């Protein structure tokens, strides 16, 4: 077992911070941050206990007996090339998703999310 390999295992336990996956008798942790390029509130949104999941081995710590796993690493990183798609200073028309005090959050349509200050966008 080494980083970069793909392995299939069964979901053993789901916690607030991630998912424990049984890889032929060795438990690996799929951290919530490594599950999706987008935002998820809880790992149970993506997997169920007993489900077979193909994951990528991210790190193996033989001394501590820990295996770090990734799911999002199997797919394209939506942030790669974002500078060429949306150059600094360019204007993009998007639907806002969330409103936080003076900030508005919207998606680019490719899995990325951006935020802008509403105060700055209202100035003439």
Descriptive overview:
- This protein has 124 residues and is mostly beta strands.
- The chain folds into two domains: 6-74, OB fold (Dihydrolipoamide Acetyltransferase, E2P) (Beta Barrel); 91-122, no CATH class.
- The protein is built from two helices and eight strands, in the order E-E-E-E-E-H-E-E-E-H.
- The strands form two sheets. A five-stranded mixed barrel has the order 1-2-3-5-4. A three-stranded antiparallel sheet has the order 6-7-8.
- A hairpin with a 2-residue loop joins strand 2 and strand 3 (26-31).
- It is elongated, with a radius of gyration of 19 Å.
- The mean pLDDT is 81.
Distance between the termini: 58 Å
* Assigned CATH class of the largest domain: Mainly Beta
Give the ordered list of helices and strands. Answer: EEEEEHEEEH
Share of residues in strands: 35-45%
**Largest beta-sheet characterization:** 5 strands, mixed, barrel
User: Numbering strands along the chain, what is their spatial order in the largest sheet?
Assistant: 1-2-3-5-4
Domain module count: 2
CATH homology group of the largest domain: Nucleic acid-binding proteins
What fold name stands as the CATH topology of the largest domain?
OB fold (Dihydrolipoamide Acetyltransferase, E2P)
Q: How large is the radius of gyration?
A: 19 Å
Principal-axes geometry comes out as elongated
Kindly state the percentage of residues in helix: under 10%
Number of strands: 8
């Amino acid at each position: 077992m080494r980083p970069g390999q793909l392995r299939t295992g069964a979901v053993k336990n789901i916690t607030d911070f991630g998912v424990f996956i049984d890889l032929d008798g060795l438990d690996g942790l799929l951290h919530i941050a490594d599950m999706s390029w987008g935002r998820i509130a809880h790992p149970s949104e993506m997997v169920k206990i007993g489900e077979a999941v193909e994951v990528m081995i991210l790190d193996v710590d033989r001394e501590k007996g820990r295996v770090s796993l990734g799911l999002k690493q199997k797919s394209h990183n939506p942030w790669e090339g974002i500078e060429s798609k949306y150059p600094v200073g360019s204007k993009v028309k998007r639907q806002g998703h969330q409103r936080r005090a003076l900030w508005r959050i919207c998606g680019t349509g490719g899995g990325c999310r951006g935020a802008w200050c509403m105060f700055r966008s209202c100035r003439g």
